[in-house]
Amino acid sequence: MARNRIQFGKGLSLSQFQERFGTEERCRQAVIDWRWPKGFVCPACGCCDHAIVGKRRLYLCHGCRRQTSVTAGTVFENSLLSLTKWFQAMWLITQSKNSISTLELSRQIGVKWDSAWRLRQKLAAVMAEVETKRTFKGRIEMDDAVLGGEKSEAEGGKRGRGGANKVPFVVAVETSEEGRPRRVLLHLVERHNGACIEAMAHEHFTAGTHVVSDGLGCFRAVTRAGCSHTPIVSALEPEQPEKIPALQWVNTMLGNLKTAIAGTHKAIRRPYVGRYFAEFQFRFNGRHDLPGLFTRLLAAAAGAEPRTYADIRLA
Ligand SMILES: [Zn+2]
User: Fold this and answer.
1) Is 220 among the domain residues?
2) Which of 108, 168, 229, 266 is deepest in the core (most CB within 10 A)?
3) Residue 33 C-alpha to ligand 1 middle, in angstroms?
4) 8 A C-beta contact, residue 175 and residue 246
């Protein structure tokens, strides 16, 4: 099957990447392989009989005479950037552990900041599309968090209720039977209350999931979505919730997330937090197979709807 041509072995080093996708022709072929693994199929009429015409090498359908470009109908449509640049960006975004700033991305692939920003937002929207469908099961550690401010009352914050510039969200980490972190969910909520937690559980947790959290009352709402719930009320809590062993991974995850944001992005404008989270989540959940992560982003991008600037601009 043609798709196997872009499956990789163990690693995708910079030199391996360059070898496979270093030219416009190779990137074009990779998109063709993903879109039409068994050969061209006209998106308008389903006919396979075609010719390749003109300087832009468009596919001319012999059934309905419609012309289709390789990138039409994918997220690469409506872009002045070459596929080579798109591929470089996808490689940089998926292979970096702590993400990459848009400024750094623009320097690395040699485009203006605005172009890098658009490309990045389009790819992040694609990753969000993938991650929003993700469901979790088994044992889950869960905690409430706020971006742009601390939640502890000692620091003047009101727990569970963010201020004007604060973005409340929930972190959930699915752990394996051996107690290792498997996958993460970073879920934005309007506020930390029962209704939001219940909606989140309905959307992402398989019935029968077991949720472990600290003593915050709203987490009980997961039981209304068919999950079981163990609140850990410890003598340490709420002064040092990070010291509760049962919540070790969710706290580690929060720490890593905050480090990544502080180190790479400094600050994220509120409307874009969801996309940033999706990117973080996509990377973390695919971390065991880095080359595969690149391939999955490529596949998602080649299969995603085109987006215009108006589509990706949120504020
Ligand atoms: Zn056709």
Assistant:
1) yes
2) 168
3) 19
4) no
Q: What is the pLDDT of residues 221-261, one digit of tens each?
A: 999 999 999 998 876 555 566 678 888 999 999 999 988 88
Distance separating alpha carbons of residues 198 and 200, to the nearest angstrom: 5
- CATH code assigned at 233: 3.30.420
Residue 8 has pLDDT above 50, yes or no: no
Q: What order do you get walking across the sheet with 167-175 strand by strand?
A: 181-188, 167-175, 139-147, 210-213, 228-231
246: left (phi over 0), alpha (psi -120 to 50) or beta: alpha
Query: Ligand 1 centroid vs 68 CA: distance in angstroms?
Result: 9
On whether the CB atoms of residues 200 and 144 are closer than 8 A, the answer is: no
Q: How far is the CA of 47 from the centre of ligand 1 (A)?
A: 5
Asked if 94 contacts 294 with a C-beta cutoff of 8 angstroms, the reply is yes
Query: At 262, is the pLDDT very low, low, confident or very high (cuts 50, 70, 90)?
Result: confident
Tally of structural domains, the chain = 1
- 189 within some domain: yes
Q: Which residue has the tokens 């394996």?
A: 176
Q: Which domain holds residue 200?
A: 139-279
Q: Does residue 299 fall inside a structural domain?
A: no
Are the C-beta atoms of 211 and 230 separated by less than 8 Å?
yes
Predicted confidence (pLDDT) per residue in 51-91, tens digit: 999 998 999 999 999 999 999 999 999 889 999 999 999 99
Length of the chain: 315
38 belongs to a structural domain: no
Token pair 């000692």: residue: 154
Residue 301 CA, ligand 1 centroid: distance in Å: 23
Task: Give me the phi and psi of 127, to 5 degrees please.
Answer: -65, -35
Compute the distance from residue 66 Cα to the ligand 1 centre, in Å.
6
> What's the CA-to-centroid distance between 52 and ligand 1, angstroms?
13
